[in-house]
């Protein structure tokens, strides 16, 4: 497969179709419209591909839940306000154990906010977002190549654990163009017994989320919790960048991590020993690895395009074993690597 | 030789209904099951029950079912039917589910002309939650949230679903029935059968509105509830065929490019 130059939103769409996604429903919202449009154009040419422009984000998430129940690989996408609208549906998919991919191309918030890149939806994505005891697998790609790879992986994990998974990127990731190589997707493994396709001559099935008996409901909640534990043990991903001799470690994900890499490159040329720890899965958060790092590194700087959300997970991970500083640019502000380098240098010199 | 003239429908499980005595859901459940049996489609039917009194419909129907969130049945049914165009897909919805919280999903599924069937139970109250005002609650009708009766200046007007949906170019068959009398029950069954046949023939969106009894929340006896439907409800929501294009070569979901 040759390299192709594509924008992030289109990469997600192409990766999804290659991974076997055959049902997409979505509603226009900036900055993710190119993804909806890509699906409209390319689902037509995918065998059995179905595209629906839904009447709302609420309808879209319930459509993908229905399609998922029939056994189709499904995806919907939106941004901030639209993702908020989908939360009841995401909670329901978790409860009904329906696999599906939700893409959030984050924009500035809260409220309507603006249409610029932001990372303010971390809490919503990683804490479950909707009501009830559940978790969503959350991938935070840091390049177009990762958008391609992780979108494909997200479909596999959603199937494997029968749970919704989220791609959490931002307006920058969605709009920027980079060369990408699409890997060969794995053959799908999803047993027919989980699909609702009419009972034929056999026994009828039902899929439900309402469990009126607290004995059943508690058992269901613990069953889900055990599943989330298995996911935490097996599916945590992160990248370590120039950590070998680092005295200060930046913790950042997605676009913020890209900016941090630029800043680190500058500072390294001035002999400042700075590295980057980049969570690739935000839930499960690479908590244990970060805690292990605190045995050798005593200073961390969390950088987010928010007022400090992942910061809480870093604190929980480090448990006071290291000092944590924070730099945030919320509301659609995107710092340059030079600006961030100045911030990092200040912190580094204080600690040195 | 004895001939069986009445039996438990095969598409209905043996479970005892949890519905209140006199509730119309039990009647309509049975009618839907009888129609599924008669059409021989148990194995290809997928039902989408709502949030509301009928949320546990999967305990009664012996067909594949998936419970929808409140109001979202037609969105789910749309997707199921698009993925499995040769199955019969129906959503079963109450008045709050269809005409309040789920009006957008219902309206747009109808407007897209999805080849699905909607069984719409209109009993003019929220039954499951204890008798609050529904979008179809009639003017001056008392409910727990309109204790002095529904007042149009603050509560708005009853939503006339069959009238509105029949105006949409996407719909093929819309009929309003009532299960307040044996004749009405028979008519309702015919309408459900016609709606399902409309779908099997690929002719598009069908909706059967059923004026249904809620003796518990109406605080009437079952007999008086039937009278209430005939003498009061039917005046606001007149039964009848609101649209029937099943005789025409209709638009079909399967024929989509």
The CATH homologous superfamily name of chain B equals: Thiamin diphosphate (ThDP)-binding fold, Pyr/PP domains
Q: Can you tell me the CATH superfamily of the largest domain in chain A?
A: Thiamin diphosphate (ThDP)-binding fold, Pyr/PP domains
User: What is the number of independent domains of chain B?
Assistant: 1
Quickly give the CATH architecture of the largest domain in chain A.
3-Layer(aba) Sandwich
Poorly predicted ranges of chain A: none
Name of the CATH first level of chain B? Alpha Beta
The chain pair forming the largest interface, with residue counts per chain, is:
A-B, 40 and 35 residues
CATH class of the largest domain in chain A: Alpha Beta
> Which residue ranges of chain B are poorly predicted, with pLDDT under 50 across at least 5 consecutive positions?
253-257
Proportion of residues in extended strands of chain A: 15-25%
What is the average of the pLDDT values of chain A?
Answer: 97
Q: Could you tell me the radius of gyration of chain A in angstroms?
A: 21 Å
* Coarse structural class of chain B: alpha/beta
Strand order of the largest sheet of chain A: 3-2-4-5-7-6-13
Number of strands of chain A: 15
**Arithmetic mean of pLDDT of chain B:** 95
Overall geometric form of chain A: globular
Q: How many discrete structural domains of chain A? A: 2
Kindly provide the radius of gyration of chain B, computed on alpha-carbon positions and rounded to a whole number of angstroms.
17 Å
Helix content of chain B: 25-40%
How does the major sheet of chain A shape up?
Answer: 7 strands, mixed
